[in-house]
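Following up on my earlier message about flavin-adenine dinucleotide. Here are the inputs again, as you asked, copied directly from the submission form:
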Amino acid sequence: MRQKVRQQLPEERIKNFQEVSLGFSDEQAIAEAKRCLQCKQPKCVQGCPVGIDIPGFINLILQGKRRDALLKIREKNNLPAICGRVCPQEYQCESECVLSKKNIPINIGALERYAADYELLYPSVSISSSYKLQSESKQKIVVVGSGPAGLTAAADLAKMGYYVLLFESLHIAGGVLSYGIPEFRLPKTIVRREVDYVRSVGVELCTDVLIGRTLTIDDLFTQGAQAIFLAVGAGLPQFLGIPGENLKGVFSANEFLTRVNLMKAYRFPEYATPINLGDKVVVIGGGNVAFDCARVAIRLGKDTQLVYRRTENEMPARKEEIENARAESLKFRLLTQPISILGDKNGSVCGLECIKMQLGQPDDSGRRRPVPIKDSNFVLDIDTVIVAIGQRPNPLISKVTPQLKTNPNGTIWVDDNLMTSLPGVFAGGDIITGADTVISAMGAGKKAATQIDKFIKTKRESL
Ligand code: FAD
Ligand code: SF4
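Thanks, got it. Here's what our run produced:
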């Protein structure tokens, strides 16, 4: 039987920001590892964008060799404790597991987390602290952005022997892992530990440096960079374009989550950043970001509902998080489209006018298109709106670097090797795909590291 991951009870967890999932016990991990068929040609590995030897690490868990299991995962994945917590495995490795045909795939994510948390339990024998620096290379590579794409590329390049400088505009590394995904899904001690691992392999991290302002791409080359990897993500909030979006009480998901996660507003006044929400919150959207906002609002004691224009089947959020949110009493308003945010005489939100929808023919995304039902308008009695309908690529670097070709949707153009229109400048992660997933950003980071290594070697040979 597939082992069920232990969790904090819903009635308890809505009162705190501690991690909801408690992971596998030793007994559960062994029981789950026993279920793995150790396929000779494992399909699960093909479903993993960074190509972890999944049966290999599961077998080590089965033998009680938890540290070796972690080392096996780290051969391919620099951030296993993060992936074990937030990867949408149901669409990736687990969907390829042969047992998924019987609807009981191996719980690969929970096993990955179990192996990765070895370092949390036994920090004195941590793998980070025992890592040997690879070389004193003078070949300098610059990575811009310390989200999963940047961290992965930086660590892989450092392991190949390059001197890697990683620039981050915020005061803390991790990208969305630090400022977006809430503590109760991804504790920040875990992110810090994985960032420490990346530094332990030789990466030099420089925070509070905004590339495009503090230093330009040309400056980086002048200062000796042999190649540059742009991993600046998609953090530009998208709005609905409906009346009332400038009213007091309307937040973008980015602002809301950054205040809460990065600036610790949930611990106000201990931390200086406040978050002035009303009592009746509506979150608009159906992805991971929308669910994170809604579950944060619930923990802040607000009456919270989620408005989504399609049905639950079309929601892009991870299934586990949808179930968790439902258990936490989030109210779902499906097939509902906001059309206007209503304000009072003080310019504050006092309602949300919506229209009912029905599903029509599939659109370009393959999902059935929501179509308004005539004369079905109604008003929701709310005082706070959080807009979580997607993010666009960060535009700064492409704006100040005209030679950098972009696509019509603002993503940076790259060729098959992730090289941009500027020779020696590579890009990957959300900045080339638009908002995607942690593991696809990491896959891009891995590919970029390989391509940058090839680029430098080819350049050296041609000298
Ligand atoms: P990012 O993580 O966005 O990192 C980019 C970094 O670059 C940031 O730190 C930024 O500050 C920095 N930067 C930007 N511009 C500059 C500059 N000019 N100079 C220097 N630094 C710069 N995915 C999942 O797989 N599972 C989930 O459960 C999940 N939940 C999510 C929840 C939220 C709230 C959000 C917002 C996203 C979620 N995602 C999830 C998506 C996932 O986090 C992203 O796809 C992933 O983080 C993209 O990685 P990245 O490295 O490309 O960019
Ligand atoms: Fe194990 Fe499933 Fe991978 Fe086969 S496909 S090796 S059963 S996890």
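One observation from looking it over: The two ends are 60 Å apart (CA to CA). Hope that helps, and feel free to reply on this thread.
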